[in-house]
User: Fold these one by one.
Assistant:
Number 1:
Amino acid sequence: MNAFATDDITALDASALSDAIHTRRVSCREVMQAYLARIHRLNPRYNAIVSLRPDDELLAEADACDAELARGKSGQGSRGSKAWAALSRPLGWACRPPACGTPG
């Protein structure tokens, strides 16, 4: 299924990544694997991730998202927030752009 190399997946902006997932050019599992590989490769040097859930838990969530897509539930629209949360939590983000970093 994957039409992208790992580095290509992590280089996609949010719109392109969403499009790739919803057109089935890449699975949620592949996206999670790509980001986890990047974290494991870079975090020892930068020590930027404070807390990261176990890979198997995160991959199980990605599999659940893939199963929803297979049942025709796209995750777009109001459900897009859930998909963003599933991807952003392991990266340590507490909000969705552009809200991140804006005064509240």
Note: The radius of gyration is 14 Å.
Number 2:
Amino acid sequence: MDERGKIVNRIEIYTDGSCKGDGTGAYGFVVASGLQNPCEFVESEKNTTNQRMEIKGVLAACEKFGKIIDTEVMIYTDSAYVCNCHKDLWLS
């Protein structure tokens, strides 16, 4: 519930990204709860970095689900880099 007592839907999304030593990387997300049908997304890139793939995993989830009205979107990541970008406002 929100501060007005209104029921808010919640979607939980887990993101990840990685990169091999040759610069080939991938990122993606999986919706763990909140949708009737499972949802997964994966994309790959060449000439990239691990940090870039971690951030792109979160951004892909935000682009897909970030504008749903009356829904709380919880994003989970194992990337300290992504968490610090958000917490310390590195991207602002």
Note: The helical segments are 50-65, 80-87.
Number 3:
Amino acid sequence: MTALTATQVAAHFNASGNSRPAAPTNVSATAGANQATVSWTASTTSAGAPVTGYLVTAYIGTQPQNSLGVSGTTTSVTLTGLRGATSYTFQVVASNNFGNSPPSAAWTAWQL
């Protein structure tokens, strides 16, 4: 008996119908005083592997500043502790039992 190759394992996984979630879509943010409320459309995934959580991250440039994890049924969260008079970019990543989605398209909220 020989071990399966990486290609064979990937083909078997793909044939199972289960997969990592798709990237969340329609990300938007509403700025507040030192905070932002970030909303998104839920990720799509296979029935056997529902989204178990989301990680929402605020960036200044390319540097992550603040992140908050929420349940897989949540599609909006308020990130606090952000600096005023600063532009932030927000991204959302979904996760399930098979891994993480690609990051969502970035959304920039100007001058919190």
Note: The radius of gyration is 17 Å.
